[in-house]
Amino acid sequence: SGWSETWTWFDGAWHEGNPPIMGPRTHAAWLGSSVFDGARFFEGVMPDLDLHCQRVNDSALALGMKPTMAVGEMLELCQDGIAKFSSDKQIYIKPMYWAESDGPGVIAADPDSTRFCMCLFDAPMAPKGTAAAITLSPFRRPTMETMPVNAKAGCLYPNNARAMMEAKARGFDNAVVLDMLGNVAELTSANIFMAKEGEIHTPAANGTFLNGITRQRVIKLLRDAGYKVHERTLGYDAFLEADEIFSTGNYNKVSPVKRIETRDLQPGPIGAKARELYWDFAHA
Ligand code: PMP
Question: What does the similarity note say (predicted)?
Answer without folding.
Answer: Belongs to the class-IV pyridoxal-phosphate-dependent aminotransferase family.
